[in-house]
Specification:
The chain is of the alpha/beta class. Helix content is 42%, strand content 12%. The relative contact order is 0.14. It binds FE-MO-S cluster (CFM).
């Protein structure tokens, strides 16, 4: 076994104890199971992480809600499914383009609903007497104005509380408009413990109501669906460029820069690759069972990971020309990447990073940092599950609690006519013999050095302790964390919205990222920041009126 990396500059046990000692005993016991010192053993066995558990009320969590995971994350980047938020106006408004998922219609006349925020704008009257009538009126209006192919209805908390049946409304309205595919999501914000529940709900509905409706495949060879790539800051555009250059046919992306028809015909592709395991592994599994499409995990964040992923995809198809083209592309792209990487590395090597992002990026972005010599000393997910930390090998031992049971688990059978294994048993056996892995994800912990600190569902207070104890060169999280961290003199890179920059995926994205990190960690600006609390221990306030 190769010698495991160990991070020794800070004692993680001491940091863990410092965090836990401030908590009341009961909370400390719970958090102790979510703050883990990494220790990778034989066969990549790692300590157990408590994940996908409720946040203790009162703790300032970084998490979002189920509606956000369904409407904002999984379906949000699709431009021609008309999306109606059934709820108070705030839910629709605040989930409108804040995630920076981009889209590029082929012509100016192509359907693109993303610039619109559509909502039933529920008022007190509907909360008391029910909102179904208003929802039906909204659908009538949407059909008359926009003539969409498909309409998704997204439930917010009050919808569940007052008992509106969005599925019955969808059925009724589909009878009225047989040419429009209308489907509802029971993704009320409180379903489950975080946005992760919304991912699962979205996967289920897209699988039952959209995938499989159109049997005509896209023209082209080597047809691939990329699952779990949402085109934040233009990432999917860079991946599309690479796919085309290599000679793959990108059948559909779930759901960056996507259209309805690509989802509906996704079952005709030859392969599914999974980028964000957390948000979409359900769909990959269900498509394999129903249609026989194998899947494997890829990562297009990091130049080396991108190269590795492209190679693996070419190897899957086993076509000599394709493999040769992929090699040529990698060589050509890597030349310009290497020049900048080496220069940036000379200035960044040895500086430390921390990553606390949703369910994938806290892992994926470690590759980009390590390419410029920066170790990740502490990391964690907001809402991922044990498999994203410990690897899919623990799936069978995850205890199903009441919150998880709340989310429907679909029973999936082989499709009577369209199930066709893309590879024969003999071919799959040959892949296995070569160590080519399908349907697997090793998780974040196995790839991190020992004695790094892994924290699930990090909160505001804990982030402050980490900053104080580790003094990292850079902290990566989101907008809610940004200014507190920067006022402590540490630059914060937003890895949700990319701070209005990007792309960071693929080769060109890697270069963008190296350069931005270089500017951030080598700028003196943050050292000169004086936070208000450094002068006065507490902020004081006064009313804006005088006698
Ligand atoms: Fe997947 Fe995402 Fe993420 Fe995610 Fe998200 Fe996101 Fe994220 Mo923000 S789907 S789990 S629910 S990679 S919106 S594009 S950045 S928390 S780490």
């Amino acid at each position: 076994m190769e010698e495991k990396n160990v991070y020794t500059a800070v004692d993680p046990e001491h940091v863990r104890d410092s965090i836990l000692k401030k908590y009341p005993a009961k909370i400390a016991r719970k958090r102790a199971k979510q703050i883990i010192v990494n220790n990778v053993g034989d066969n990549d066995l790692v300590p157990e992480m408590l994940a996908n558990a409720r946040t203790v009320p009162g703790i300032l969590t970084m998490r979002g809600c189920s509606y956000a995971g369904c409407k904002g994350v999984v379906l949000g980047p699709t431009r021609d499914i008309l999306q109606i938020t059934h709820g108070p106006i705030g839910c629709g408004f605040y989930s409108w383009l804040t995630r920076r998922n981009q889209t590029r219609p082929e012509t100016l006349d192509d359907t693109n609903f993303m610039p619109y925020a559509m909502s039933t704008d529920l008022q007190e009257d509907e909360i008391i007497f029910g909102g179904e009538k208003k929802l039906k009126a909204a659908i009538d209006e949407a059909v008359a104005l926009f003539h969409p192919k498909a309409i998704g209805i997204f439930s917010t908390c009050p919808v569940g509380l007052i008992g509106d049946d969005v599925h019955a409304v969808a059925r009724d309205m589909e009878e009225k408009y047989p040419d429009v595919n209308i489907f509802g999501f029971s993704c009320e914000g409180y379903k489950g413990v975080s946005q992760s529940a919304g991912h699962h709900i979205a996967n289920n509905k897209v699988f039952t109501d959209v995938v499989g409706l159109i049997d005509t495949p896209k023209p082209g060879n080597f047809k691939v669906n990329i699952l779990g790539e949402y085109n934040i800051g233009g990432d999917a555009f860079e991946i599309e460029r690479l796919m085309a250059k290599c000679g793959f046919t990108l059948h559909s992306t779930f759901s960056g820069n996507s259209v309805y028809e690509e989802f509906a015909s996704a079952h005709t592709a030859d392969l599914n690759v999974v980028m964000c395991h957390r948000s979409i592994n359900y769909l990959a599994e269900m498509m394999e069972k129903k249609y026989g499409i194998p899947w494997f995990k890829v990562n297009f964040v990091g130049a080396n990971s991108t190269a590795k992923s492209l190679r693996k995809m070419a190897e899957y198809f086993g076509d000599k020309n394709l493999m040769a083209t992929v090699e040529t592309v990698i060589k050509e792209e890597m030349e310009s990447v290497e020049k900048i990487r080496n220069e940036v590395k000379s200035r960044c090597e040895g500086k430390t990073a921390m990553l606390f992002v949703g369910g994938s990026r806290a892992h994926h972005y470690q590759d980009l940092f390590s390419e410029i010599g920066m170790p990740t000393v502490s990391a964690g997910y907001e809402f991922a599950h044990r498999d994203d930390y410990e690897g899919r090998k623990v799936l069978g031992s995850i205890v199903v609690d009441a919150d998880t049971r709340n989310i429907e688990e679909l029973t999936v059978e082989k499709d009577a006519t369209r199930y066709s294994p893309r590879k024969s048993e003999a071919e799959m056996a040959a892949f296995a013999k070569d160590g080519f892995e399908f349907s697997d994800y090793k998780g974040m912990m196995a790839e991190m050095p020992n004695k790094t600190l892994i924290i699930d569902d990090l909160n505001h207070y804990e982030a402050e302790v980490l900053i104080e104890k580790y003094k990292p060169a850079i902290f990566c999280a989101g907008i809610k964390e940004k200014y507190v961290i920067q006022k402590s003199g540490i630059p914060l890179k937003q890895l949700h919205s990319y701070d209005y920059s990007g792309p960071y995926a693929g080769f060109e994205g890697a270069v963008n990222f190296y350069q931005e990190i270089d500017r951030l960690v080598n700028s003196n600006m943050f050292r000169f920041v004086k936070a208000p609390w450094q002068g006065n221990p507490e902020l004081a306030g006064s009313y804006g009126w005088t006698k």
